[in-house]
Queue: 4 jobs
Job 1
Amino acid sequence: MLKLEDLNSEFMKFGAVNMEIKKGSIVGILGESGLGKSVLLKTIADLIPHTGKVFLGDEEQNSIKASEWRKKVSLLPANFIFWENTTKDHFRDINEDLFIKLGLDPEYILDKKTEDLSSGEKQRIGLIKVISNNPKVLLLDEPCANLDNKNKERVEKLILEYASKQKAIVIWVGHDDEQLKRICDMLIISKKNRFRKVSL
Amino acid sequence: MIYLSYYDLALTSILLLLTGILSIMMRLGAEKNLAVASFRMITQLLILGLILKTVFSYVNIYIFMAMITVMIISAGIEINSRQTFKFRGMLTFYISTSTMGSTALILTFFTLFYVIGKKPWYTPQYAIPLAGMMLGNTMNGISIGMDRLSHSIVTQKNKIETRLMLGHTPEEAIKEIKRESIKSGMIPIINSMSVAGLVTLPGMMTGQILAGSPPVEAVKYQILIMILIASCSSFGTMISVHLSSKNFFDSRERLRLERLK
């Protein structure tokens, strides 16, 4: 279980967040831009200073090294930046199945220079990289922003499969309410000074 | 030795004046910096000449240490002023000055005590020029290395944060940046060593030869100095870049660029 206790940061305009999310659940967060939804994901991943506490099971965020925490609670940013020369260079063990599931031809894409990747390819490879860590909590910041409908479906399918097989918790920040209603177990609407659960 | 008059110096200054005029005509905007740097160089060296005349006549460790302290602090201020991004407060100054001061002092002591064997080791005629050469070159290395480090971290913020998000440690997330920063700080001294004797006649050796020393003896001193400068500059750059890199992250391994000004 992921538990957020009075989690707050100066850029979260909806205020402190208290929430409990069960294993295997997918939670969607909707809301206008600039309210601090991405900031919330960063505070859960412990990437920015914040108040309040985050627990994963019995483990409190500050009780382990931040880099160890982020291997368990990984964030896929809206703009995934590559640091090596080719796609292949970013992976220690390559799971070609993941590439195929997301509509990417491993033979072609693995040797491709990262600077030549399209924004949609970058987004899907970023997702594969994050999933390859086998995190217990997957934080997704607009993971389908640059994708066409076919690829959106592929991403949804992969996330549903990952959450159910790995019993992982997924928090998905997005703007497509139809998509989030389709795949999420819980939906949250964020507004100024309000962070409200919506029953599906 | 042929002594130079102030008239000789004034004559060569015309060349600098011509450079300034060209800068104005070509609208390079470098004339102000050129004028300030020339004025500083002439004033500083003339004052140093007067001070050294007095200092050389007293073999006293306190006078030596006072002189070295002034040199180290001046070099620290210079490094600080050359940084595009500085830490808030005095941290950039502390890191650069302490690293530069400690590496230069340790190597100066080692050379004077064990290699040259001059007694006492702080004899100013040897100790001050030696320390000065090491400080000057280490200052350049540290200045370039630290500037490259902070500039690269600021411009590659998203890349570093993406790596942190995936569970990389700060050390892993900036290892390439650190490597490149250290290398860039070491390039000037590597270049100087590569062309020494082939393209350039290093300053100290030229000075000794002009003052009448046998060329082979001057060369031996120059090799010693080059080795010391290269070591000191490299150690200083490595240590300062490493220490500086630690301060971009907090205890929870978060990138904290708001610590810069």
Job 2
Amino acid sequence: MGARAAGGRPVRRIAARVLVLALWAPAAAAQVVEASSTTVLRLQPDWQAGDTRTGFWGTELVGLSVRGIEMNGVDDLKIQLSAWGQLASLSDPAGTGNGTTGDIDLLYVQGALFHRHLALTLGRQLISGGAARVLQLDGVNATVAIDKGFGVSAYVGAPVVSRFSYPVGEVAFGGRAYWRPSYGSEIGLSFLEIISGSVLARQDLGIDGRWVILPNLSATASGIWSIPGSAFSDADLSVSWQVLPTLELFAKAQHTSPDLFLPLTSIFSVFSNINNDALGGGAFWQALPRLAFYGEYQRLWVDSGKGDEAELRATYRLTRKANVGLDARFLFVPVNGVIDLRAWVVYPLNPKIKLSGDIDWALVQRTPINGGDDSVIGTASVSYVIGSGWNAMLSGSVGTTPFFQARYSLTARIGYDFPFLNPSAKATR
Amino acid sequence: MTRRPRMALWVLAGLVAGGAALAGSGSGLQFNPNHAGHTKAGVDCLACHEAIFDQTELGQPGPLPKEKVCLGCHKKEKDAGKCGMCHLRADKPATYVTKPPSLLMNHAKHLEKDEKCEVCHLALPEKGQLDKPVPPMSTCLGCHDPHKKQFDNGQCYACHVDLTHFPLKPTTAFSHRGNFTREHPQISRSTSAACETCHQQTFCADCHAARTRPFGPETLNPDRPDRNFIHWGDFITRHSIEARANQAACQKCHPVSFCENCHRQQRLTSDSSNPLNPHPGGWLTPGSPSFHGTEARKDIVACASCHDQGAQSNCVSCHRVGGPGGNPHPPSWLSKHSTSEIHSKPMCLSCHP
């Protein structure tokens, strides 16, 4: 798809009408139909080629979920659509020139056959799990639940072309065999291959597992092995232990080889073997019913040097929907570092009106960025539930950064949740 | 900083402080149920909630006591005008807040087996609580074989009504507390099916459709500063440091051309018409601390983010076989690759004709 609308072409118009008709027919037979529209208008300066210009972006997002469609022999039949279009006063960085752009994020039909032993998804979708990580794909995905928790999934299609037209590849296929002994525990073996211009761009084998050892103790591990690179491109291990209902501890280790994330069709994939590693842990503590703390530390091995990363957060719930928080993040790598401090508040004045605000202060250590070493940005927002499916939000931010002496933005959002088209509908099971 | 932004920041700081100071407490409860007091007085649960015996589905009216039930004992207080004893807002007394039920639960059937409410209701709502305590799922799984089996098979909808609409935040096996935004990739790599019981793909796409969307969730939701969005605040200033800390993390969503196109627009790449050379002195001098070969070994992704033009890459002109740049492969290259690969891979032929 990758529809970058040039505006008003008859073919596109006809395709749009066909799409509407194709979605409307099953919608009429569905138990649940939900549709939403979100319009976002944004005004902010953009830094292009050394000049600051004020830009305007108007974005329309639409979502459609058609579920509970009755069809003999097919369970859980549904159609999902998520798409957007944008009009901008400044040209898109991809160089489309006229600032008009849009695309479909998701558009798929999903259903289960043979008493839910076979699940099929057809269309633009996200493939997740195992070696696929999260792969946006135009294609088909089939999952077969065999028995006793064993199953296998397989997919084939075209990786979604990035809005920067990067040649990820023309064909991707792969699969995952899994064993799911209980709801929270699962182990899997997976495979992914991407072909670009009839040449191998990626070929990965994955092994992953999550095990709930005790109700309050779980371990997660995964590794993705690049077959051409003969090395792990990505591996991790983490253990989470809920010592008390109010206290959780976790430890984790992570390894990545960033060069193996480059497609094999890139000349840069042959220049280096890089290993990035991280080892650390942290805790979440619900000190009081309203007060929670979170802390995490990681030792980093990057760029042939060492680094540190830490985060501390305190959140206080004023009411069920109101909270204030403080977050401090420290990141140091061999070449540079940054301390980022943030404070926020979310406070509903009443069930309809909600105020929120935050201040973010980033302090660059060692090497200045664009001649500056700190930035401060504050944002204040008010959102309003108008009723009858309508909601609105107005937000403004001001600040100063190394790239903007005075940075501001203004965002307005208007949302509308269309009512259930079939008012007697019941939620899907 | 100019005077105007500074003033705005002070105003904002005032908003944060004022919001915190003004905020009161409350849980959405209209009544002070005082369960603790009733329990202490030896009042049986069913004295007030008798109609629960007949409730076959949550949401059926009756189990929450009507005023006349309360007045059976508290008439004297009402006559004395002490509305605040039960109503949390004595000036504006209201009835119960009702919500659509999110569970399929037959109280009548459960009470046939055992009339002890406390088997499931380990805690009861009290004044000042933020969340109404509900029986933990472990109580369901602890008593009933069928429910344990349903849980293990992921058959959530035997009890839960549409988890995509009535999500429950898990507190144990899939705890979302702490910084789950950061931890979820590892967990979902194995258990995406479990994630899908509550989250549809559209939820994932809000962040993971980065290939097709030119805006992130923080752009659409500036009114949710309490969420752990990755690019919150002034990410542009931080991005080069974040990328150095975990180069692979960026690539999971953004192809290297994402960097290239933005940097080209800012005239930071050799591919732009008037490049501003970002490289330090000594970049082309062998032996220099900032020699490009050494830097490329450390962070090849940064090189690729600007210079990856396929076989037309400017690396090829010097590093091709016989070129002045010499062999660019890392030391371990030959142990993993044979020379026979050259003829099967078009990219190799760029330098090895």
Job 3
Amino acid sequence: MSDITRAEVCVAACADLFAGAGETLASPMGLIPSLGAKLARLTTEPDLLLSDGEAFLLTPESTVEGWLPYRKVFDIVAHGRRHVVMGANQVDRFGNQNISAIGDHARPTRQLLGFRGAPGNTVNHRTSYWVPRHSPRVLVEAVDVVSGVGYDRAAGPFHDVHRVVTNLAVLDFDTPDHSMRLVSTHPGVSVDEVQKQTSFPLVADEVTETRLPTDEELELIRTRLDPQGKRDKEVPS
Amino acid sequence: MRDKRMTADEVVSQIKDGMTVGIGGWGSRRKPMALVKAILRSAIKDLTVVTYGGPDAGLLCAAGKVRKLVYGFVSLDSIPYDPWFKRARETGAIEVLELDEGMFQTGLRAAGHRLPFLPIRAGLGSDVLKYAPELKTVRSPYDDGEELVAMPALKLDVALVHLNRADRHGNAQYLGPDPYFDDLFCLAADRRYVSCEQIVETFDGPPQTLLLNRMMVDGVVEAPGGAAFTSCVPDYGRDEALQREYANAASDLEQWPAFYERFLG
């Protein structure tokens, strides 16, 4: 299948976040991570549990298979069988994330959502981030407010920041000091370009190219999961 | 059995300046907006408002009712940010206690259980504790010796919640998919008021939808449409058009007075 879009590459990269997850609650925030989680469930991770973002667990056919109101989500968070993919207004070199406020928290220049569940998520179970516009303003040296906890802080026994997927690249923290590493750049993106859009130096020793979605995945993305092509609005090619 | 029916204004007459008021629902979902409107119309001031914040937080900030806001987030769901809450924060108009949303639940639960605190992992390593130095940690007395956040009880003077159905005695039922935390708000509060779409003699539906029993409730207000413009499914969904109007007016101080007057009715 030809004419694979950047958005489709991002969806497949988000699907790969859940590799080996098994019977785990996937909590993707935002369109591309949601498409990725659904794609994983339909292909390599049939045991994944998916919520509708409200109170139900849904099968790929949208049948209700479980009840998960917010209070029970907090139980799952503490129990740990969950992989959340959160957004990030800022994310830094050690995987600290900010969705609370820009500037001084006492009187921010820009108030954002608030801590939400980020502090609890990041100390309890696997967390990944999705950044639809990779830029030096998002990939910062140090976040203004630590909502999601990074590797340079005492975060307890269950801390596990897995990966950052952006519109340009896939990154992780698999380095001796857990500083951010460039794993792969999306087809058509250079290592230099990713570095230029990042405020801190990335570890970039063995960078590969992010894989293309398979024909089966493209078919699912285009005809079943997102026939209206909303993905291309979130990540223009 | 006691008949606890009252009006929204009678509820609000029980709220004094400086009190801590918990507001049920979540984001822009099943907020007790009829009761919030009654606060907006009153002379009450200096409230500490404890909420999984939606437009309730924004409107109370707009009316200058809030001295301190305790929240995990403030969002209108389909519109990410509430403009009035943003303005209140960015102008330094309110004090805040910004929590992880699981810490928030744990604080309500501690209050409901009459405990000084409950331990939770959420908050460790994050800036929640940096901006709220009154929050302490506690070390496990067992062999693991783990350090945990000692989330203090979020004690409320008053809880305001909105459910789908109630009887005159204060038993109350939710018919949507999510109870939110309305029962915890009531257990955490000294005085508990529920507004509802309809007061009924007997309840239809499975008994596990009866979220509140009468010993958790001091007053019942029949307020059809009393959560609008937030959602109260299955009775009605969110009034997205009115919410957009609210958000647009809240973003533009010139438009705000006309909207606010119309909104309060």
Job 4
Amino acid sequence: MAANREEDYRALAIIRAFEERCMTLKGAGEIPGSIHLCDGQEAIPVGACRALEARDAVTVTYRGHGWAIARGLSLVDLFAELMGRDSHLNGGRAGSPFFSSPEHGFLGENSIVAGGMPMAVGAALAAAHDGSGSVSIVSVGDGALNQGAAHEALNFAAVFALPLVLVVENNFYSEMTPIRDMVRIERLAERAPGYGIPGVTIDGNDIAVVEAAVRDAVARARSGGGPSMIEANTERLVGHYSGDLQAYRPSGEVASAREREPLTRIRRSAADEGPGAVARLDAVDREVAATIESAVEAARAIPYPAPESAREHMYA
Amino acid sequence: MPEAVAELRYIQAVNAAHRWALETYPEALVFGEDVALPNGPFGATKGLREMFGARVFDTPISESAIVGAALGAAMRGRRPIIEIMYGDFIAVAMDQIVNQVANTRYVSRGGWRAPLTIRTQQGNSPGACAQHSQSLEAWFAHTPGLRVGLPSNPRDAYEMLRSAIASDDPTMIMEHRLLYPDAAQVALDGPVEPIGGSRVVRAGTDVTVVTWSRMVGESLKAADTLADRGVSVEVIDLRWLSPLDFAPVAASVHRTGRLVVAHEANLTGGFGAEVAARVADECFWDLDAPIGRVGAPDVRIPASPVLQAVVVPAAGAVVEVVSRILAESNR
């Protein structure tokens, strides 16, 4: 249990520390442009990626740093990519919201909220024809379900019983507007039966709960049972984007969310156990901080891409 | 081995290219609305389901999902050939084409490739409404990352579609349904050409007409009419807008000193404007007359054939513009 707790904590903390470091790097001008952070939502990618295999495909959104880290992409490359440097990832061409990694089966982030869903369906379609037995998982936010591509993709996957798992990370904000103002249903998973597929709503702040739900969905998909939807409820501890002042959020909402977020939960359970358990988590924090700092240093050593390379790789 | 040659209608040539692809590439998939059991709304995919089974399938009426599914499948090793029933319907899938498909290779520095072919047919036919009539090739020629071809005859319908399918780049093949009944001898077993290349379809000395798709035939008719008046017209079928095969255009203008571009799409922002700009840029001192342009006026396409007749350009418009620039020539 204790080893598990530290392992879970480390998996979450590395994402949190990455996101927080991105914010300071952005403040220092080392990361250009808007970034969209997943603070508070880390348990979803961590739990989900534990249920996946190397042969599976992963498609996410611009709030996808956590998924990349959970999927095993290099921290150095991620920092370098966000800094606009010549990273091994995409050489600075993708930036924070659009990077991808073929060797990780990571089809990529996407700036169009439901834009990656049809592509994920395509990865599932390939699996249905290539005998690989792979599954395609796609994560989107709650707001994405209101975009047309989401509807087209879900019905398409359902009709052909494709091996697709849809994870809807419901952080209750559709960018900056409460999702409850933009849908007439209580739970987004209620839409699943409309496509003739199973849908569940789960606590997205609990790694084990997420992992179990994704394992079920992946097993169903891999065995020919078709797609399913997992609505993972969570809360964003930060704004929609790095410059979002969140004036639209009721006062006290974020503070209260901090009581429920995944890292706090694990800290609380450690505190219940005793000072030794807390000290072990403190040690993990120190180790994570050192890992992040050395990744930042290594990323800083990566040069910027050669300007004359800007026209390369347009066509085969 | 003797080359197999067959007399094929344009639409049959499209069908033959699909058959070739499904036989050549085990990873090829063919899908779209009504393409399998109904054999395709125009017959482009006739018989393929029977021959190739599950690799040919009907989809929901979901253009975004069709294009996106093709992209994801292509990224994961398939070689999809998809049909969008009418060019106008591509508007439903524009995010997938412009923001997703076209970015795949460049943003990943070639880490991903997207070997997919999007086939559609476009243009006006008598009585077709404003949502079944547009010529939208300029949208895609304006989108780096895509290849765009518009076959004007059965041979090209076969060859260009094979080039598109064999290519590892996402390629749009935009056919014109009025050309579907045209027949010609098509060589079936020749080598697959790489994407690109224009063709001089009529040699001439007085004026160069650069055109593509249905307007190739209209321009050839115009050239006949003008020949009777003693005007020698060179007609270049551009075939591909991306990559643009500009050198033969420049060489032709160097000889004739005059350029007319002719397309069915409306004028403003049409691809003819790009050809005109390139000639003005690179061939300015070869020009003996203003550059002439033929295209639809900037209006929507009405359904009534009486109104269409004054909106959709044909041979008469080419004759008129060629005659006008000849009258304005300084030699």
